[in-house]
Amino acid sequence: MTSKAGSLPYTPCLFTPAHPALANGAGAPAQLANERYVEALARVVYVWGHPFVNAVGRTSTWELMKGRGPGMAMGLFPGSPKNYMGFVDDYLPPAQRKVVTPNNDTIYGACFADLGEEPVVIQTPDDAPAGHYWTIQIVDAFTTVIRQLGSTAGTPGGKILMVGPEWQGEKPEGFLDVLRSPTNVAVIMARSFASRTPEGKAEARRVLNQMGVVPLSADKPGRLAFDCEASARNKVYPPNLNAEMLAADPDLLRNRPVHGTSFWDDLERALDLNPVVGPDDAAMAKQARVLVALRKSDPRWAALLDRTVLAADTELFESARYEQVGTDAGNGWQKQENAGHWDVDWLGRAQAAAIYIFVNQFEEAIYLIRGTDADGALLQGRYTYSMTFPKGALPPVDGPRGGFWSLTMYDRDYFMLPDSPNGRTNIGTVNIAANELRFSADGSLTITISADEPNDADAQANWLPAPREQFALLVRAYVPTEPLLDGSYKLPDVHRVALARA
Fold first, then answer.
1. What is the value of pTM for the model shown?
2. What residues contact residue 241 under an 8 Å CB cut-off, 6+ apart?
3. How far is CA 348 from the centre of its chain?
4. Cross-strand partners of 465
């Protein structure tokens, strides 16, 4: 429905009072009331739309990789043309500054799909060793997990057709299932566990090469062949960047994926790509379209909306910090209990997008985070900290089903150290399996965390290097058992054990 003038939707017109300029300022209260309402609505729309803009903005790799095939965008992370999956063939490089808080336990594949253009075919492994962990995580444009395929779920080998919200058709012969996304844009992330050994990484690549994504028009009868090593060799850079520049300065890519200054334009593009959204987001999508139209109607409304989003953007990034996010999980650790299943928790979803976007659903992996020590002070690499697991109290994951855990170090902006002095960015299951860590005589394990290398030999063996400045910690527990799921298991606290050095 449009206004009488026919130029704007009816609802945006209502935000301006019929007579805002009454004599003696009599219309001012009505104008202020409307502005306050618009401002409050804009704040909520920003929080709701942040992960939407964040995820859709990452489809910029479509253009970069167009005509170049699956590969490594910027030479650092998986990239591909629209509706294909690109791969790395090793852990993500610690120097990458495009994806916050990646793990350093699995080898990744990633596809950004446009299901409005055509469906995609997702292939799952048919020859993964028993106990090898793999997953294909599928999220909508708002980062809500649609489906978590994989070894944990017992997904069989085969093909799944993934379609958009408006697709009409029947399941093709030979396909396991048809999976419908509530949005046209969907993100499909493959992960295959890799130990630190050459044999372990070779196995991870072999399993990863059995999974992938292609557009339906590129499907062929039988199994499809993927090659993560060929993808990793295909390094693609934009005209203004090259490998030497990024090696000299990894922070060239340290850039917020959502900006208050461009939010409304980016939101409009995301809405245009996704004219239909799921039921949890449909009402807010309508409100967002109203505000986009209102912003175009008058420079004064544009100024108000732009100013409001700048403030909301700043506030979100200050609240979305490891020392602030989540609920108490014991001993100074926090977690988001609804990870991946956001429902209408728009704030939690936005905070997660800011600090660990594309988080797995909590049944698949538990994420425990912290940014403070046992005394509530911010973690700083100029100090030394210890974390002691009593005998038999390591994170309880289901090892026979591929479960593993790790403690990962991130800098203040939630990226890995680009040049760890001992090569470690995390510590956990793979180090124990490789017999790299030293347990105490009583069976306990003490991890030492600091920027400076410890002098003690046992502490050196169990050292997780930190940046000298502020840092944050994240424990991942893949294939968690019931004590992790119900919260009865508690991680040990992190204690400061040394004073700042002069």
1. 0.92
2. 74, 252
3. 13
4. 450
